[in-house]
Prior knowledge:
Shape: globular
Number of strands: 15
Largest sheet: 7 strands, mixed
Radius of gyration: 26 Å
Low-confidence stretches: none
Number of helices: 21
Strand content: 5-15%
Amino acid sequence: MKNIIFGPPGTGKTHKLLSIVEEALTKGIEPDQIGYFAYTRRAATEAITRAVNQFPQYDKKDFKYFRTLHSLAYMELGLNDSSLMDDNDYKEMSGLLKAKISNPANKYDNYGTGWQDDKFVNIVDLARIKDVSLEHQFCQPSTGHLQGGFQKLRKIASGLEKYKKQNGFLDFTDMILEFVKRGTSPKFRLLIIDEAQDLSGIQWNMVDLLCKNATHIYIAGDDDQAIFEWAGAHPWRFRQQKGNRIILNQSYRVPLAVQNRANSVISRIDNRVEKNWNATDRQGLLKFQPNPYRNIDFLKDDWLILARTNYILDKVEEELKTRGIFYQRQNSKSVSDRLLLAINSWTRLSRNKYITLEGAKAMYHYMSIDVGVKYGSKTMPRANEEKEYNYHELVNDYGLLLPQAMQWDEALDRISPTRVAYLLASLRRNQNLNHEAKVRLSTIHGSKGGEASNVLLFSQLSHRVDEGYRKNRDAERRVFYVGMTRAKKELHMVRSETNKEFSEMFWRT
Length: 509
């Protein structure tokens, strides 16, 4: 029995899928008879963490098939790390092929998909991911002009295959291809496929194979949030799935004002599955921001700042630094963990408290030699990792040269003046730098699955994205629909500084 679940934004799709898992477990289905396959490693980890929290009688290892499709292929094919192309192999290939090639596996953690920096290799991989011929992919309008043309493209594709064959290597795409080629899969009494709208052609081939050996099947996603077509996703395969259709119709995130504006954008797409879903009981706030940095209090609640491309976020970062706002961009805080550890360690020493060896080393890292710490003492080579240290021990035995009463911004003299000014401004605003940042920055693609009380969404498009928007408006409609529906309370929309923008989100229905 195949069930197709459509989950509009914030309608609790993961909760629904885990309730299906819970029901299966109560009926006597063992965890290793359940396949739960998420699109990204992050989502797979979240699913297994929730499962263990919900079912404490089991350990993480019991849910061996809660993973990504790539991870399943890796396990079932009996691979190890030495079987796969790594960064050094791609670097060697760059020299052999005279083309810049990066390891696409490095992108899978956050996005569930990989792409190459080199345009030729990107086309080679896209053809394989989409399950189309190299020539077909080369002829797509998105390919644009390639210096050297199809002849050079074919040479690079051939060179890559030859290198992998000679060394017995596979890449991430090969893992899926080999799994499908083998033609066998584990048998599942319950099979769940999540974020199905983002699956590529070859991943759908793998799902088809898994479905043949499964009793109860749930395929979940939302075609309105299919924002990875450029990376090979085949959302039409999800829309065309046959079976019992279930539409989750109550959002627990999106307020009415935001839903109305988001729906006005997504409803302009013809080729989609119509879904009637309810907003929360909050009205919410929709606001246009001519100058967001002057008009917004970023210390109120939590904020998710979204932009279509990274160069816009670069400008946002500079503004936030100027204003002393503590933030996080993707997985990196605006103040590194080592710097925070150094500041906290010096503060503890000045209060006659003990610090760890790691804290002392972090502190010494930001001190100049023979000013803050003696030459040869920075790494504390004779120190005991199990021991903690106070100010007097560090002075007497480990080269510390500074008076205890000195403030951290003077003691840690290797912190740049601009960074010190930013830290002091942040602290004057009473922000706790040791907690998670209330302000997060992300591209819209990187925010999928996230949410915040308040969303600040920039409408500006880069030249390249604007060209794509003119050719395929539906793709950008889905992207901004995702961005708009991250908001739980307020959506603040910023007009573009140029004539290139996604203006549709400002149109009223």
